[in-house]
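## retry 2 of 3
previous attempt timed out at serialization; input unchanged, resubmitting
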Amino acid sequence: MSNGRIPQEVIDAVLKHHDIVDVVGKHVHLTRQGRYLKGLCPFHSEKTPSFTVTPEKQIFYCYGCGAGGGTIKFVMQIEGCSFAEAVRQLAEEAHIPITWDDRPQEPTEEQLERANLYEAHEHAAKLYHYILINTGEGKKAVDYLRRRGFTDKAIETFQIGYAPAGWDTLTQFLRRRGFELPLMEKGGLVASRSEGAGYIDRFRDRVMFPIRDAKGKVIAFAGRALGDVQPKYLNSPESPLFNKSRNLYNLHLARPAIRKQRQLVLFEGYADVIKAWEAGVANGVATMGTALTEEHAAVIKRNADQVIVCYDGDDAGQSAAFKSIAILEGAGCRVKVAMIPDRLDPDEYIERYGSDRFVRDVIESAVTSVKYKLVYTKKNFRLQDDDGKLRYIRHALGIIAEIPAPTEREHYLKELGSEFDYSFETLKQEMNQIRQQLQKIRANGDNMAIPWNNAMNGGGRSAERAPSLLPAYHNAERKLLEVMMHDREVALMVQERIDDQFNDETHAALAAYLYAYYALGNEPDVSKFIATLQDERLESAASSISMMDTFQGATEQVIEDYIQIITGYRRQMRTIRQKKEELIRAERSGEAVLAAQIGKEIITLERQLKSL
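## retry succeeded, writing output
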């Protein structure tokens, strides 16, 4: 139950100041359902909300992946930080003085490496920015940026810089500051010389765009070549800090606007994001030239409900936009697509037509994903002849048949009928046949959505079996623990009667923690108790148990019944073990008749055990 060097009164103050609804609400869109609030779990991919927040208990629990705990635990999981780091972050936000030393006595090698890389990247960003703004070497990069329409404000806000053409400017800069160059190579800042002796700068003669994580820390760079060099665009390689399949450019700056609007604009590159930001689109992020991944989509869904995909207007950009729809909708996002004419990219469109027109005619005029699919796929059919026209209509009906909402289906059927002069009833009849075929395929298939079996990041924990499928003793232990979490006197009585002799190992551990919690003079407080556990398995179990809400109907007799079921199961197990020992002795002694009799008794006892 130790919280290290963090005073308990600080933890109590942090929990008192931060309402879990506000903390979770920064990352999850919550809707009220009676006493609870529900939303899509930020820790695994799901389409149906199974993530629940209970304001009166100040806890969260996901019925899909089993994640659960209090305010501190949520911050730990969403930010990927330790207990001490989460408390420090919450304390700073609440302006609670940091009066303790929460640094680990001996940081791990991995922690030291990451800290060094963060520091080195921050130094590199400042160096590149300084060279751009204050040196003659940076003048051609400044001229390039101004020709492209980047303002001084944008250059400063996004800390754009310049990596000079020399071979080892950054390398020597880092060496002088004591950074180990092999680690800098691992972090993607320098590279080994081709002949194998020494190191050189990875980025040379490039305009540099720092890439930051969601907290605003520099983790990588994107470089745009100024000369006739290939590749024209170069990103940092993947490193202990940077994962191109997960990180989104500008999320740290865009997040406030995204959360306010519950909408995100997705671009392909950093230049588009910056020019759109200057045009007034503050909720833009980019995948930095890499294809959109499910991990990207999961990050996006945690922050927004609707996504406007604004990719380049050429064939490659539109193909990527089409592919992104399924990924984003698979993560539970509502998707629109901004259609840019004349094969322009967002940057070029803003340069040619101006900010107001970009916002009005591109972003605000984005079409639904269904409309975009119809427009995008139409070009694959020869509409000049009847065969091509009919094939497109059947293809379009297949797209419309997938729409779950009847009103929306009717809208697109009427549009299709008007475009090709077909009656609404004829189109609806054929579409319904397609829908019936789709439903048959899904009904016979084995890929029905299972919310708790689609976890991201290596798979999550399977949800617990439904309580009705669990043994009676298991349910009795859960219900008794729930009462104990809400009633100190019951917990003390249970400690006298059965102590930690619960049959389930997790339940026994929770009981032991509860006894210690009350022994310190604490009053019943589920959130505060869970904060003392600092064990993911126990936090999840305690959160799940506290969500049962059956403790208010627990009379003295009901509690006694729980205890009898628990102790009865334990006695029966002990009796079975004793009988099995007797069976072994009888078999060793050659007493076949006695062994057979004991064997029958064991079978009877085990049958009885199943009812306990």
